[in-house]
Amino acid sequence: xxxxxxxLIIDDDVHIRRILEIKFKLGGYHTLSAKNGxxxxxxxxxxxxxxxxxxxxxxxxxxxxxxxLTDPIKKERPFLxxxxxxxxxxxxxxxxxxxxxxxxxxxxxxxxxVVDAIDQYFEKKAF
Amino acid sequence: MKPxxxxxxxxxxxxxxxxxxxxxxxxxxxxxxxxxxPEKEASNPVxxxxxxxxxxxxxxxxFLYDEKENHVDLFGxxxxxxxxxxxxxxxxxxxxxxxxxxxxxxxxDTKTLLTQxxxxxxxxxxxxxxxxxxxxxxxxxYETLHLYxxxxxxxxxxxxxxxxxxxxxxxxxxxMRVDMAFSLMPDQPNYSKIVCKQELNIEDKTKFVDSLxxxxxxxxxxxxxxxxxINNSLDSQTFSSIHQDRFRxxxxxxxxxxxxxxxxxxxxxxxxxxIERSQLKLLISIAEQIGVVISNTNLYHELEDFGxxxxxxxxxxxxxxDLYTRGHSERVHYIAMLMARTFxxxxxxxxxxxxxxxxxxxxxxxISETVLNKPGRLTDEEYTxxxxxxxxxxxxxxxxxxxxxxxxxxLHHHEHYNGKGYPSGLKGEKIPLNARIIAVADTxxxxxxxxxxxxxxxxxxxxxxxxxxxxxxxxxxQVQIFNKIFNKLKTGLEMRHAE
Lengths: 127, 499
Prior knowledge:
With 127 residues, chain A is of the alpha/beta class. Chain A has a single domain (6-126), classed as Rossmann fold (3-Layer(aba) Sandwich). Helices cover 50% and strands 22% of the residues of chain A. Chain A binds chain B through residues 15, 18-19, 22-23, 108-113, and chain B through 131-132, 135-136, 138-139, 142-143, 145-149, 174.
């Protein structure tokens, strides 16, 4: 079932990109991928994905800078950002809670739970 | 048929070489270098011969070529995916002038080239298939890692709860893709939980699980160390009698050292899969962790109970010597705790007060019985000796680190609010809070109980006296609280007296 939504996956680890690509395709979504924050930002601006999954530690513009740069964009055209990171500390939890429509998941993460979170987000938006 | 990934190269070759390349499957044309005019395509006699070649290759599943009188103008090679033919690669002369001489080196060369192209396509498909399988496996591993990590984090809090067990069973059921997951712990029914797929064809789930466990006990053959697997219920008479449909089932014992606390189990009607080693290992790991937690919790409770029993023993030793204070420590404890609850003392502080109140007179062990039970007035010397009991008590409790915070309450329970008490002459708020509370309770009980030298006064009279010494001997705030609880206290004490 094609849900007609596009998810952007940003991670410097190719195997994580592949796992998420396949899981999302099976879930009926289209996917775009980026290897780092810079590429990711470009795709967000040009192709306007409906949700973004991103790692925190990446070369060339890491996850938290990306979030801060895209937060203003979200005010006009909201999209969900899920940050996936190893063990989150209270400082990071703090700035994440200040961003619009942003949530985090700790590694080792469950790929199905990421897809579930996206499904729920779109269901809620539909109402 | 899925794309070969070489469509662009084949288009390129088609443009520059004598051959045109096309790919067909059993349904018809899949790829050709230029889409061209559809009408023209259909009527083209070439298309007919291509179609026939495809049919022949699907039958023979090998390289074929069309021989005319003295030339060859059509070659074909089958494409396989997982050993099944899924399509045909065709190469044909783009014009009669380009036809090849029969059985010449050109035919052989063409066959070699086509074979190499097909090999590349096969290799690419193989890599893609492998890659997909690897990613799928990786995905499963990520889910399992997540589950392990989740369990470890929750169990680390050493706080098993019904919700935690429920969540754990649901995660296990999801992760292992089974119809039911359960935990069964007969001694802790709070931790026994069965979770299942919504439309599960089983009426009484609790009875069902019980019969599964019973069946294990009677079928000892497959019992590995602490676990039991059966991949097909029909293999066993006992199991097949539990449910008419076939099922597979795994149960792992929750144990630690020699104690067995119960079972964790998974169950499924889906016979397309079997119970895997990785599932067994995961379940064993979770069962082990739960076993450790239960064992530690039990140990902790046992130690707590032991500690309480030791204190009761200590109290009994005082009362063995001091005939007139039978039950005194318990009554002082009862009053002090009632007061503390009334002004909302928190749980940890109440625990400290609990011990201080019970043990406040433990120092009397060091006082001679004749002095303790003397019916007449005490001499100055005897009085000095008795006044030592708070210090002696503190000394006795000192080696018990766990009770360290209770010592101030024991040491200073005879201080007076106006500073005229003993042993240290502390005044007002400088007297530790627990000591001020115990002082009120102690005074009340002293007045109301029978002594060697006088009978006990009434509760009301005792209240009167306490109010009289508020501010001098006793802390006015604590006296106020005592007044508040007086009625409740009276009822409570009368009930205890009646028992």
